Amino acid sequence: MTLEQLRYLKAIVEGGSLKAAAQTLHRTQPTISAAIKKLEADLNLQLFDRDQYRSTLTAEGKALYEQSKHVLAEVYSFENLAKQLVAGEELAVGIAFTSAIPISPILNTIRQCKVEYPRTRLEVYSENGLGPLDLLEAGQVSLAIIPWIETHDQLESIQLMNMKFVSVIAGNSPLLTQYEEIPRQIMLHHPQVIISGRKSSTKTYGVLEGGDQWKVNDFPAKKEIILQGMGWGTLPEHMIEAELEQGLLSPIAVEGIPKPQELEVRVARQASNPMGPVASYLWQLFLNLQGFH
C-alpha cells in the first residue's frame, strides 16, 4: 500500500468517478484503475462496487476511505511542517496585549501576519494592565503590548498609540451635585472598582487606599458595576464614549487621586532575544502602525 494509492482512492470518491479523479490528478484512467486494483489485491478486499454505474464504495471500502482521510491529513501536516522548518519559520509565535486598548489594530496586524505565514500558529493573549509583560519575561510570547508606565531597559519598544483614561461614576450619583472635587473621606465609603490580574498588573495606580473595593477581572464587568451605581473607577475613554455622551457616566475628581493623564502604549520585545522571521514580520507590521490613534 502506498500514499499514492490512497490519494487515488480519495480522488475517485470525492470526484465521483475514475474520469474525474484522472482529471484532478493529471493521470490517465488506466494508471489510476491499475493502482486501485493493486491496492485491493494487497488488502485482499474489494473497495468499489463495480456493478454500479458510478464509483460506489463497498462497506469495507467506506471504512478504509474514512481512515485514509486521516492518514493523508497527517501526511499533509508532516509535509507542511518539513517545509516550515526548511524555511526557518517558527512553529508558534505568541503575542500578548493589555485588554484596555482598542483591539482593532491588533486584529488587523495578526490577520496580515496569518496571511503571510499561514503555517505558523499564532498564540494571542489578552491580559489586564501589565500582565503581558509577565508573559514576555517568561518567554511565553515574543511581543507584548503594554502601558508604558515606567522605563524597561531590557526591552526594545515601539510607540503604538496614546490612550486616555477617565475616572467616572454613575451619571445619577448625588455626589456630582454636592462636590466639584469629592473629599477623600467621602469616597472611602464608595467602593472603587479595580482590575486585578497577574503579578505585574496588580501594581496599583490611582487607588484610594483604605477604602471599599470591588476587584474584577475585566473591563466590561468594571464598567457595568459603575453604570449600576455600585462603585466608581477609571475606565479607558474609548470604552465609554457613548455612556459619557448620554450622561450615563460622568467624570469625577477625587481628593488625593491624580487626574488620569494620557497613557502611552508600546509594543515591546526582549532586546537580547533574537526573533524568527514570523515574529520579525509582526514587529515590522507594528512599526508601520506607529502613532495609531
Detail the topology: elements first, then pairings.
Blueprint: H1 3-15, H2 18-25, H3 29-43, E1 48-49, E2 56-57, H4 59-87, E3 92-98, H5 104-116, E4 121-127, H6 131-137, E5 143-147, E6 155-170, H7 175-178, H8 184-187, E7 192-195, E8 213-216, H9 219-227, E9 232-236, H10 241-246, E10 249-251, E11 262-270, H11 277-288
Parallel strand pairs: 3-4, 3-5, 7-8
Antiparallel strand pairs: 1-2, 5-11, 6-9, 6-10, 6-11
Helix pairs in contact: 1-2, 1-3, 1-4, 5-11
Outline: elongated
> First CA to last CA: what distance?
60 Å
Largest sheet: 7 strands, mixed
What's the gyration radius in Å?
30 Å
Decide which structural class fits the backbone.
Answer: alpha/beta
What is the count of DSSP helices, taking H or I runs of 4+ residues? 11
Percent helix, as a range, is 40-55%
Indicate the low-confidence ranges by residue numbers.
Answer: none
The run of helices and strands is: HHHEEHEHEHEEHHEEHEHEEH
Average pLDDT across residues? 86
Oligomer: single chain
Strand tally: 11
Task: Give the amount of beta strand, in percent.
Answer: 15-25%
